[in-house]
């Protein structure tokens, strides 16, 4: 199973485009250096409602003390069974007939995939009036976590008595073996999971669903009202939802549990809980790492995003179909830019890094003469090398072209599998091989023009970062411009065709005539060398010494703290709450009134109609109850991957749909600040009203109500 | 004529309370160090629409080039004649029968003055259904600028051939003589005015109106919707207006000009102009002064405001009548705190002071070996002394008690007038004497309990800042607590009674039995010493050397730039425009929709009902056109004193009522930043709708329409 993408993140974004960056971010930052800042100082008071808690280790006493409430086992079981895992996000069962609610931006790749220039469901929205009209989305897979097993004892036993390097290998092998056995035993898709950086090992077993159909989605204009401008901001007026249905054997699936609609109105101050799949956070990084992130990594990344945005804009300008194709990728890039700016804001906020450094000093003091203290220095050195290797990022990231990445996979499925598992690149080890093959085979449509434009942009970026005289650049361009080289690579390729792609894997003779395969044969060894350099000089050091620090922390703190995000199921909780910003207090709820205020305040023309509403919203306005809450803010600890998470009240009833967090929250990838970090949800009452009054989907509201 | 107070400023605030601080701010900062940053570098491009321009010297060519429009002489004449000067703010004639429109917060002191516990017009609003019901406001004075005369040649001639100190005195005397002659000649109230710090001298002649009556005001809840929280912020939903009428000889006054309602709807991007009385700005301060302002003056001032706020809250808690009395003062203090924080934000913004320093260096370079260069060093030294003298602020500021200030005036009217004019404190020189006597005689009601509470707070502050062992503190307290000393001072005083006050001035025998007079006799010499210390060691140096720098600048730049704010008539212009903030673009207009959104988003209970609406607003909601613009933002260069200014379109028609600026604008007292500095107005269309649909004042809308 691949590491889950971040919802609405630079490294996810639906079916096309910047999914290339999923790899890139993971190589830019250590994803295994995981423990919260909270863990640093037992002596400090626990920060309010911080935490990405696993369901097996919730701070129930703390909740009870603060809110007079803690969820019981039955509620937690129901919540877990009702939570659905999307690629890069979350969803939830909201009816007994397998209706799944998620964000529009999580479902957007699927909606776009089933759209055409004539039937543009992104633009116009969609409602299946009957189940027969629900549209299957090919290649879409959803998963539900049905079994978890703590295998810490077995895995640790495997390494016992061995030297450190041997022990690590033995533990990996043991975990991999346990995973295989569990898959065979249960028939589930089993994910081996390391929590607390080796403090705990788990197997997470998922039931996978592959017949997923689009049921309903509002117009993109209202789903992301305010567009890139309002993204990551609040007060907000986004109707960011979509509905899918899972089918099994051609029939609507009856889930083990589903979330009923709230029976009491949600109010300011009410406690809510969010169940979902928060992705990578960097709260455990050392102060030295954060300083490099602030001064080099994120500024470099933003520069890369800006190049990519320019390339996509140029592509989109070539015609209406190109514009439509580029939409999702452009949205993803804008999103990435703003998120990165939010993170930088947090890293640069006076006092923040100083605080991290102080807490680090305090932890070090508690560790006395422990040899682990040297690990901080090793990490600081690796972070410096990480900065030095930044210009090689395009080589490590398939030049930002997803189809080139797939072609590289094709070549490596041939070469890497001939090596012993421990010598392979990570994606080709025995445990990862199946997922890699599945990704290669994914039949979602590929748009060659867009892929070619992205390859050209990636080549130009490599040229700028490495210099025209760099051997890799010379080999790739061979005297041509980036655009000409990309054109040659896409001149005659079958890689977009699932049938041809499958035949290539079987070693079909056409392989040698494919222009993209030819390009990839030049590219792959250059990429491999860059990836290995990064792996050895940066990632391995960060993993090893980050692991040692984490181990020392786990020794001191154990499960009294939460493990950093791993894209797996977590629960977070906190009250509905405004927050101080912009010189005032920001309101906890927005309403339909505010939606029309913002639309009228800007008018339909401003900023390419960013705040314009579809015609029917104006026509049907008088039928709406304008005081109905639309979006709301709450003090939960969500991050990317929580997109589409259900927000439930203390009875486990659905009150909202998490879709974003405010600009202040972006700093939370590194540093949690409860005073102004807020999650943002669509209010469930607003979804009901929109389905009824705007989308003519009364039948879906009846279904939500269990009628 | 006294220097005008700043509208909505720490040193104004209606009839009571923190008006004490009017003096204080003027003594904290040099008010004669006036020239804009813009002036510093002729080589730099002119910053967009910066400028507090005098009507005689508008940048018409620049406006024409940028907007294809510049006001003609007729429009300017009409605008000047229609602009009304309030104490601490601005208003405008909006009907042929002398109806004057200003802000609720400018008229609030008057509204409060005519209110009682039973007829609480602050809380409930007020409309005079007939002219007979219009309520006279005793002591209220409004002025209209009817004649201006440039007397630069005469004043400069008076100093010709004399040594510097003698020349300054000769110029002052000449200006004072010209003022007297002009008053006798015209019968007007004549203000001698120094622009460009001595580059120009003017006489401004005002017609003064003393029969002013309250016509209409909405509920305070809607006038300052969002209260202290939303003050100085945007997007905003304030219906911050009030209407007065000027009477002459018992009949409605027919003004020379009045502003008609707009005939075309105002839209985003439209050019608007604002006519009003911007007060002191500090844009001309040296980098060294701004650094002291950032590091000592404003932090010290904020600490003083916080003490005062605590004292007022304690007073307000003593009963409902005390709470009512303290309202205006508390509002003023909150306002002052937020404004100070905004200024500090601007001063602390990375790069801002560095830019000032760079521009200063460039100006110095242009001045070559000019002896004026030494003035920067003298100012830096004086700023350091200013910091040292900060703890004496309470002594210089009548201990924050307005009635003590008046009692000091009483004593000084006796003593100072025996000295030759040039040896007197500034307020007692021949030119200023009449205004000082007028202020002493002002018959607005005085609330003894509130004054006593403020004196106690001021004594406690002096004790904290100077230390209990300081001779002044020991003399004032004489072994008592601050509260006991204040109680003794207010034990038996007639100073609140206009009749007794007048008799005291005539030297009536009761004077010697008055407890507050007795206290003032101890206080006055201490205050005088502190004031003289500050005057000699700080103010005179800032004036002298600030003047020399200003003179050098005026030599280089002349009237190609605007003079800093002097509380006199200015015009500023710019487009209706949103701005970047909070991670997004902020909408240019808000609407009634948004008002109800914010009310519903918070609910009626939150933050003491800060965002609750009066009952009739809910009851009559369905009669409103909710898409009507409510408030709007525009890129004009307004500051305190512009409160209540008319906002007009290019035809000179009323489109809005300036009432505030955003939090980003507060930095504009020091540093102009056109990207995010925005003025905020109530939209004239909203006022019409509220008068008609909520306030049952159709007759006033008819009057506005000239019917």
From TrEMBL, chains A, B:
Any GO MF annotation of the entry: serine-type aminopeptidase activity
GO biological-process terms attached to the record: peptide catabolic process; proteolysis
UniProt keyword annotations, A-Z: Aminopeptidase, Hydrolase, Protease, Serine protease, Signal
Enzyme class, broadest EC rank: hydrolase
EC number: 3.4.14.-
Task of the protein: Catalyzes the removal of dipeptides from the N-terminus of oligopeptides.
Classification via PANTHER family: PERIPLASMIC PEPTIDASE SUBFAMILY S1B
Family statement drawn from the similarity comment of this UniProt entry: Belongs to the peptidase S46 family.
Protein name: Dipeptidyl-peptidase
